[in-house]
Amino acid sequence: NLDVTANPVKQYLTQHNVPWQQIHEDGGLESPPGMAFGIISLPTMLLVDRNGKVLSRSVSLDFLKKQLPTLLSK
Asked: What is the pTM of this model?
C-alpha cells in the first residue's frame, strides 16, 4: 500500500474486513517498499510468491486467472 500515511489504510482494512496482509511504510511512491519494488505509478499489480520473490511486475487479470491455480496448488 503506497498511501502517504497509514491512517486511511488501517481504517479501510478494518471497515472492509480485508483478509490479506498489507505492506505499508509512510512515504507513498518514495517509501522503502515503493522504491524496492520499483513502483513509479499507481495502480501497479505485482505477483509475489510465498517466499517474497516477485514473479511478475506486469500482472494482468488474465495472467492471474491462468497462473494462480497452479501457483496455489504448490
From this structure: 0.62
